[in-house]
Amino acid sequence: MLIYSECRSASTSGGYASTGADRPCCSGPGYATPEDATHAPPEGLLYTTCVYRGVDSKKPDFLATVDVDPLSPTYCQVIHRLPMPYLDDEIHHSGWNSCSSCFNDPSKSRNRLILPCLSSSRIYVVDTGSHPRAPKLHKIVEPEEVAEGSGLLNPHTSHCLGSGEVLVSAMGDAKNPGEGKGGFLLLDGETFKVKGNWEAPGFNPSFGYDFWYQPYHKVLISTEWGAPKAFLKGFDPNDYANGLYGKSLHVWDWDSHKYLQEINLGDEGGIPLEIRFLHNPRASEGFVGCALASSVYRFYKASNGSWEAEKVIQVPPKKVDGWALPNMPGLITDILLSMDDRFLYFSNWIHGDIRQYDVSDTRNPKLVGQIFLGGSITADGPVKVTHDEELQEQPPSVYVKGREVTGGPQMLQLSLDGKRLYVTNSLYSGWDNQFYPDMMKTGSVMLQIDIDTKKGGMTLNRSFLVDFGKEPNGPCLAHEMRYPGGDCSSDIFLVETEAKL
């Protein structure tokens, strides 16, 4: 067995290298510990999923390579675009073929980016290793392969496993397209063929979405969005009332892959989306952001071995005129934890703010930073706030380099050292068009926020702007971001893993 603590400092000089000749103990991808990851070289590139579905049906989605090296002559520019061969995919989230969970395996390399597609149910595999600044398409897993191999559709989150395989969550039922079904499919880490279902035969939740695994505590926990026939057409509050959206967490045994328990959060945890365990591989707790309820729950392992959850953050709704409903929720759509597990960040996509909490005491998060970047309550917009428990006045519109930030802050990615937070503002094309129709014409943006890692606090970097409204093929919607060297929302660390024989 390879013990986690034995390789604790082996990767501090490894940087983005995946072979790590200067790391004598372990030489696989990633880092031995979260602390080692915080000493990584600064990120130089960002891979960003970009969507034309819903904006222009005649153009394919693409993967953008963005230069984020401030010393580069192409800083803040899209330096490469990899268009997909099909239309109307809705590339959404992404993940790596290997990460720090494979740190002990020198045969593994973080060189393939996995791109599941919400609408088409394809899974693209992109070669980022051969030419990091100009990735190329490596393989396509067609929707028929996904359906026949797993009985699932509408894939969402992908994580690499210590075994070298890739685990992908899904939200749709192949036998009943449009209906919800929470499950997982395994991809071979070399061929990327569908190997079958990860979960043991038997029960599947009605809904799926995100997940995180924790082998030390022998658990995987997944979340719920809703039935594809509901969320693919745009958000209708009646669909939530009619049970087409979720409100539960699901606990799975890591070794047997059997379903263990449901944690029903109730309406106060309506639509739990992004879930994050603490990065500490021995930690038995983490956080989940609940979109519709605008709340954050802490989940944890109880003394009797079961898993429980408690609400630790609540964003109050605002009473408004001039909006679809009289009460406007924040709509928490993305959350992440800094690599040192000190700060929790989340985006309120409709209110328009990003919040930073000190979670040193995980049961009592403290708000230490807040910044507004667009949203639906700007002072010069059509919505009038009539009662607000938090703000004295409506925030102003935000302009960066003369460009107004339309939409609201959505996807987040933090540098490994915790000092730079990157933000895009597209959620999903159908919901973008519903809540921020102007963004379909202007396109989305990428912004950068400077972080005070000592006391907490956030400052918008007004010299950083990637304007996806000025793409050569017209405005598009930018969504998730990944660094070639790994990041705070994809790398999972193991306490001990099987040594390679």
From TrEMBL:
It comes from Stichopus japonicus (Sea cucumber). PANTHER family: METHANETHIOL OXIDASE. GO terms for molecular function: methanethiol oxidase activity; selenium binding. This is Methanethiol oxidase. Keywords: Selenium. Its EC number is 1.8.3.4. Pathway: Organosulfur degradation. InterPro entries: Se-bd, WD40/YVTN_repeat-like_dom_sf. It catalyses: methanethiol + O2 + H2O = hydrogen sulfide + formaldehyde + H2O2 + H(+). Belongs to the selenium-binding protein family. It comes from the Eukaryota. It is an enzyme of class 1 (oxidoreductase).
